[in-house]
Amino acid sequence: MLWAGRVLVAARGLPGWRLRLLRRRLRRLVGPALFEFADVRPEMTGSQVTSVFITRQYQDRKTQRFKPSDYQGQLTRGLTHEPSHREVRKLIKSLRQLSQAR
Question: What is the pTM of this model?
Answer without folding.
Answer: 0.70
